[in-house]
Amino acid sequence: MSSLREPLSASGGPRGSRGFPPPPPTPPSRCAVWRLGLGSLPADGTADGARRRRSLAAAAVVGERRSTHPGKAILAGGIAGGIEICITFPTEYVKTQLQLDERANPPRYRGIGDCVKLTVQDHGLRGLYRGLSSLLYGSIPKSAVRFGTFEILSNPMRDATGRLDNTRSLLCGLGAGMAEAIVVVCPMETLKVKLIHDQCSLRPRYRGFFHGVSEIIREQGVRGTYQGLTATVLKQGTNQAIRFYVMNALRNWYKGDDPRREMHPIVTAMFGATAGAASVFGNTPLDVVKTRMQGLEAHRYKNTVDCAFQILKHEGPQAFYKGTVPRLGRVCLDVAIVFVIYEEVVKLLNDVWKTQ
Length: 356
Hints:
With 356 residues, the protein is mainly α. It has twelve helices and no strands.
């Protein structure tokens, strides 16, 4: 009678532990998910729990790379920075010229087009690339330090799928920006502004990059290349914090619950341009103060705060957004190019440079 109480199997016999094959083994993906920590999650059936399970399962099945090796980030960042600055430098030149064209003196330029026209008339097309060498020499290590620092800071903060939450990306971006400001950007930007400002004078003193560097150091010492350090650290820190935050938020939104989803270079470029635009509107006033503190007239200001006060007093609040339009065009293109090249170079390095 006891056998009659047992439920029948699909073959018509009682389902028991004797005489029947064992149940099928647990699928490998479930085992992998358990090893990732899914087994400890409560089976509450909530949307968050389901989303977490799908995300972990995807990482377990495909064995997704959790992070970028700092060495790859440094190399890819340097390559991206060098290519980007060669493409976008003329817009940086125009932006700097307009910011140095202070309202206290009779303005030389009536706008962006007039600045380009007069520069080409006086110096030819090569005039739009005056000061490129200082940026080119600095852009490669700048991007290398930026992306290398970001990966070093962010790798320990990522979850099992390689996902970085937005708040942590903001902090990592802030750290990357401050590092690049101190190591590379401040001396590089000081030299660039001095060389461009020197070209505006009636009798230019510097015959080129190396002559300009030697003269600046001879007259002002190494300290002469670190003018406006506070403003530069504030500008670069907020710059990269905003850019990495926006870029990471858009990437997380695009991938959703599927960490395997690839981002097409066009999508990366669109997200990068958006991040660049956000950084421009967020910290252009700091960029204006930084440029003034690094120009040939920097001796007029006691410090960064005094510079900001003098600009506000003599030129009004609108002066803090002088050069925004050319900077917007340059930065959007800059950030889009850098992120696209960086991502593609990292993919290439992953094929030829195997790391844990």
